[in-house]
Specification:
binds zinc ion, alpha+beta, binds adenosine monophosphate, 20% helix
Protein backbone atom coordinates (compact mmCIF):
# COMPACT_ATOMS: atom_id res chain seq x y z
CA UNK A 1 0.00 0.00 0.00
CA UNK A 2 1.67 3.13 -1.30
CA UNK A 3 0.41 5.65 1.20
CA UNK A 4 0.24 3.45 4.26
CA UNK A 5 2.54 4.72 7.03
CA UNK A 6 3.33 1.27 8.42
CA UNK A 7 3.92 -0.23 4.94
CA UNK A 8 6.44 2.56 4.43
CA UNK A 9 8.06 1.79 7.79
CA UNK A 10 8.13 -1.93 6.87
CA UNK A 11 9.81 -1.03 3.55
CA UNK A 12 12.32 1.20 5.38
CA UNK A 13 11.16 4.26 3.44
CA UNK A 14 10.47 5.83 6.84
CA UNK A 15 12.99 5.17 9.64
CA UNK A 16 12.03 3.47 12.86
CA UNK A 17 13.83 2.13 15.92
CA UNK A 18 13.76 -1.55 15.08
CA UNK A 19 13.50 -3.88 18.08
CA UNK A 20 13.05 -7.16 16.20
CA UNK A 21 12.62 -8.19 12.59
CA UNK A 22 12.24 -11.30 10.49
CA UNK A 23 11.00 -12.01 6.95
CA UNK A 24 7.36 -11.58 7.94
CA UNK A 25 7.14 -8.98 10.67
CA UNK A 26 8.76 -5.83 12.03
CA UNK A 27 8.76 -4.61 15.63
CA UNK A 28 9.74 -1.03 16.40
CA UNK A 29 9.44 1.52 19.19
CA UNK A 30 6.26 3.59 19.25
CA UNK A 31 7.01 7.24 18.50
CA UNK A 32 4.71 8.35 21.33
CA UNK A 33 5.28 5.77 24.06
CA UNK A 34 2.50 5.17 26.60
CA UNK A 35 4.76 3.14 28.89
CA UNK A 36 8.55 2.77 29.36
CA UNK A 37 8.42 -0.16 26.91
CA UNK A 38 6.08 0.48 24.00
CA UNK A 39 6.77 -1.56 20.90
CA UNK A 40 4.57 -1.95 17.83
CA UNK A 41 4.56 -5.24 15.93
CA UNK A 42 3.36 -5.20 12.34
CA UNK A 43 3.12 -7.70 9.51
CA UNK A 44 5.26 -6.64 6.55
CA UNK A 45 2.32 -7.24 4.23
CA UNK A 46 -0.60 -4.84 4.40
CA UNK A 47 -3.55 -5.97 6.51
CA UNK A 48 -5.81 -3.09 7.57
CA UNK A 49 -6.90 -4.37 10.98
CA UNK A 50 -8.00 -7.44 12.93
CA UNK A 51 -11.24 -7.26 10.92
CA UNK A 52 -9.34 -8.30 7.81
CA UNK A 53 -7.81 -11.46 9.28
CA UNK A 54 -8.98 -14.60 7.50
CA UNK A 55 -7.59 -17.97 6.44
CA UNK A 56 -5.53 -16.37 3.64
CA UNK A 57 -3.45 -14.13 5.91
CA UNK A 58 -3.71 -15.54 9.44
CA UNK A 59 -0.14 -16.84 9.14
CA UNK A 60 0.99 -13.22 9.57
CA UNK A 61 -0.91 -12.98 12.85
CA UNK A 62 0.68 -16.21 14.01
CA UNK A 63 4.13 -14.84 13.21
CA UNK A 64 3.34 -11.84 15.38
CA UNK A 65 2.25 -14.07 18.28
CA UNK A 66 5.45 -16.10 17.96
CA UNK A 67 7.55 -12.94 18.12
CA UNK A 68 5.96 -11.61 21.31
CA UNK A 69 8.04 -13.68 23.79
CA UNK A 70 11.22 -12.85 21.85
CA UNK A 71 10.43 -9.14 21.98
CA UNK A 72 9.49 -9.43 25.66
CA UNK A 73 12.89 -10.98 26.41
CA UNK A 74 14.71 -8.38 24.33
CA UNK A 75 13.01 -5.46 26.06
CA UNK A 76 13.33 -6.89 29.59
CA UNK A 77 9.63 -7.48 30.29
CA UNK A 78 9.47 -11.25 29.93
CA UNK A 79 9.46 -11.79 33.70
CA UNK A 80 7.64 -8.64 34.84
CA UNK A 81 4.79 -8.97 32.34
CA UNK A 82 3.19 -6.79 29.74
CA UNK A 83 -0.01 -6.01 27.87
CA UNK A 84 -0.77 -6.65 24.19
CA UNK A 85 -3.31 -4.32 22.55
CA UNK A 86 -4.63 -4.14 19.02
CA UNK A 87 -7.01 -1.26 18.48
CA UNK A 88 -9.61 -1.85 15.77
CA UNK A 89 -11.88 0.63 14.05
CA UNK A 90 -13.53 3.75 15.37
CA UNK A 91 -14.52 2.59 18.84
CA UNK A 92 -11.14 0.90 19.22
CA UNK A 93 -9.59 4.28 18.33
CA UNK A 94 -7.35 2.76 15.69
CA UNK A 95 -5.36 5.60 14.16
CA UNK A 96 -3.15 3.73 11.65
CA UNK A 97 -4.96 1.40 9.26
CA UNK A 98 -2.28 -1.28 9.10
CA UNK A 99 -2.64 -4.13 11.61
CA UNK A 100 -0.40 -3.60 14.63
CA UNK A 101 -0.06 -4.95 18.12
CA UNK A 102 1.10 -2.70 20.93
CA UNK A 103 3.45 -4.30 23.47
CA UNK A 104 3.28 -2.27 26.67
CA UNK A 105 5.46 -2.92 29.66
CA UNK A 106 7.54 -1.71 32.59
CA UNK A 107 4.58 -0.12 34.29
CA UNK A 108 1.51 -1.49 36.03
CA UNK A 109 -1.36 -1.37 33.56
CA UNK A 110 -4.72 -0.62 35.08
CA UNK A 111 -7.66 -2.85 34.23
CA UNK A 112 -10.27 -2.18 33.06
CA UNK A 113 -8.82 0.57 30.88
CA UNK A 114 -10.43 4.03 31.07
P1 LIG B 1 -3.29 3.03 17.06
O1 LIG B 1 -3.77 4.33 17.64
O2 LIG B 1 -3.65 1.82 17.86
O3 LIG B 1 -3.67 2.90 15.60
O4 LIG B 1 -1.70 3.06 17.14
C1 LIG B 1 -0.90 3.75 16.24
C2 LIG B 1 0.39 3.99 16.94
O5 LIG B 1 1.36 4.34 15.99
C3 LIG B 1 0.35 5.15 17.96
O6 LIG B 1 0.67 4.66 19.26
C4 LIG B 1 1.40 6.11 17.43
O7 LIG B 1 2.14 6.75 18.46
C5 LIG B 1 2.26 5.23 16.58
N1 LIG B 1 3.00 5.88 15.50
C6 LIG B 1 2.51 6.77 14.60
N2 LIG B 1 3.48 7.11 13.74
C7 LIG B 1 4.60 6.44 14.10
C8 LIG B 1 5.94 6.38 13.60
N3 LIG B 1 6.33 7.09 12.52
N4 LIG B 1 6.83 5.59 14.24
C9 LIG B 1 6.45 4.88 15.33
N5 LIG B 1 5.21 4.87 15.84
C10 LIG B 1 4.29 5.65 15.23
ZN1 LIG C 1 0.15 -0.96 5.26
Amino acid sequence: MKNCLFCRIANKEIPSEVVYENDDILAFNDINPQSPVHVLIIPKTHISSLNQIDHTNSEAALKILEAIPLIAKKTGIFESGYRIVSNCGVDGMQSVDHLHFHVLGKRLMKWPPG
